[in-house]
Amino acid sequence: MLGNNFFDKYGNFENKKFLELLTQAQKGLKKKRSNNKGLNIEINLFNSVSQKELWQFVNKLSIFINSWIDIKWAFSILVKQTKNPYLKKIANEIKVNIDYGIGISESMMQYPKVFDSLLIALVWVWEKTWSLWKILLEMDKRLLENIELKWKVKWALIYPVILLFLTFAMVTFMMIFIIPRITESFAQTGTELPALTQFVIWISDFFRYEWHLLIAWLVWFFVFLNLMKKTYHWELFLWYIAINLPIFGHIIKQSNIIYFINSFALLMESWVLLLDSLKTASQVVPNIHYKKEVVRIKNEVESWLTISKSLWLNLEYDTNIYLNKLFPEEFAYIVNTWEETWTLSESLKKIGNNYSSELKRYIGNLATMLEPFIIVVVWALVGTIVIAIMLPFFKLWEIAKKM
Known about the structure:
Blueprint lengths: L1 H5 L8 H21 L15 H16 L4 H11 L3 H15 L4 H5 L8 H13 L2 H58 L5 H15 L1 H19 L2 H12 L4 H22 L4 H11 L3 H15 L4 H4 L18 H13 L2 H59 L1
């Protein structure tokens, strides 16, 4: 029975059938756990692995493999040293699957939310070429670079939001606790208030008595945004706005280009086929417009068109017109040079490092430039409130002088 199910007519073990059975067993186990009402139910609410934890996992595996430790023993050590329970469970499952002839990449495919397509493709290459030590070293380096880049990009986008939120919190405090007390003093005098003061008092009353409407609008906005993000056309619209923002659009564009270049160069250097490299790299970039662009390039290359021409680089005329808005022209020239010299991976690595260094400098300069701008915004808001408070006092002083 077992031979008829998992072995072909030549006696070779078929992993595909075993993986299908394993997937069905996993689904049945999850269904059984969800229907189980006993005390031993397994709660998997926090089954997630951060980029830092994944990098530490790959880093340790790279050290073990380069120390000539047996692959199964390496995963046994990883199971003991991994702190994340979910990642520990995955490492143990990979170790067990090795005994049944299931490849590491095939085991990783069962967890697409943990291992991205780039890592799976590189491990698959190792299983075909037996060059895991080199691939793990490069992957370790690239993961660390991606973590640093993502942190810098997120900080560049979140930093202004944090400062503006603190400003909003300070203004809210003034509107709720300071303005009402001053308003009571003005009401006792019966003096007609200036328009700016009346406007500030109206905002203060809104914060005090209609705060539930403000919260309801914010909740509705975030719920609506999350629901719309799950639709394809709305996601296209949001990413289009993101890459066309005046200042932050350059950061988003540049980061997507770096993700593509790093993954594509690493795949090509690992001797992955060109079309497979393009397909995998399209799944690495986060922006959906870049995903579509890389898929379009892959489809045109599949139709025997060069990558440089797929990037709309035309060198047949004296005056060159470059119309691709997602990839820079110098990138297309480098690809064109590779098509003549066959040195793409080295060229891409160099330009990827240049783009990464340039983006880090840009983010550093942006943070420095935003600080005085946000300080001006804060002082403008606070100054407006202070002026609105002081205007009635000047009016009272004029009345007192006339008396």
